């Protein structure tokens, strides 16, 4: 008791447990170390991660690429299911595969976890997933932060974010400058919802009254398990395409927030339009489930979810067969989605241009979707 007669206020009584944070670091550090090669200096727990750039000397004009992102409200599903390690794959997918789009090889990543109360095992599970995904993509996890925010977040609530840096030779950068009329648009299959549109999905399930433990025959598993399916990591297959397809690979587009058309338009130059055939693939059951349960218009679904296409490659006609074969060997189903032609100023439903502040090309969605 203090001289005032009141109980003294301490950091612990304010809701912050620094010892729990230390225990979380102990539980996660082996997983983090497993992502470290000889380029990472200083180990775990420093103020900053150190990465040796001596290998950059082999580049004639090295460019650094960087990206940052989170996983959105998918964390609410993880919290409700009390399954936390898969979220790390979503985070790495959202961050690392954004820099791969320009042809950059990821070097290192950092993460940030904000939570209402540090539960060491839960934090360690999240970071373990991030580390496993980093190892799969060849990315060193060089640092991170876990912040306890009592009063701002409920004890079991958390959010995650990350940032990654990669490197690419200036003359090898992929993007709009390489795209030509006559190029072919290839789709790479998603593993499910990935990490976008969960606010729509969660609202649909709330309206329908469906619980996460509901068995859904069309999905072959419980609803919550489907919703937590990790984001497919395209890093190594896309970098292999960039290396082996060489001049045939012109651009990549990561299908995240905004859907297929909006993201593809970002990597097309002004004056060109990509025609996309909606009937060229079968929309996976989880998307049709969301549409049916919520009476969601196809236009809204198309502008929100990936509908089964997680990454897109724009290649020369001569490179199509080789790219499809190479992706199949890497375990990534792919198919011809459409072609690039001159933009003749088309307007109306199904035409998207000028997305996310980019003065790029246009995409025209044609035909009708096929559902299982």
Automatic annotation (TrEMBL):
GO terms for cellular component: cytosol. It holds the Pfam family AIRS. Its EC number is 6.3.3.1. It is found in: Cytoplasm. GO terms for biological process: 'de novo' IMP biosynthetic process; adenine biosynthetic process. It comes from the Bacteria. It catalyses: 2-formamido-N(1)-(5-O-phospho-beta-D-ribosyl)acetamidine + ATP = 5-amino-1-(5-phospho-beta-D-ribosyl)imidazole + ADP + phosphate + H(+). It is an enzyme of class 6 (ligase). GO terms for molecular function: ATP binding; phosphoribosylamine-glycine ligase activity; phosphoribosylformylglycinamidine cyclo-ligase activity. Belongs to the AIR synthase family. PANTHER family: TRIFUNCTIONAL PURINE BIOSYNTHETIC PROTEIN ADENOSINE-3 (PTHR10520:SF12), TRIFUNCTIONAL PURINE BIOSYNTHETIC PROTEIN ADENOSINE-3-RELATED (PTHR10520). This is Phosphoribosylformylglycinamidine cyclo-ligase. It comes from Actinotalea soli. The lineage of its organism: Bacteria, Bacillati, Actinomycetota, Actinomycetes, Micrococcales. The gene is purM.
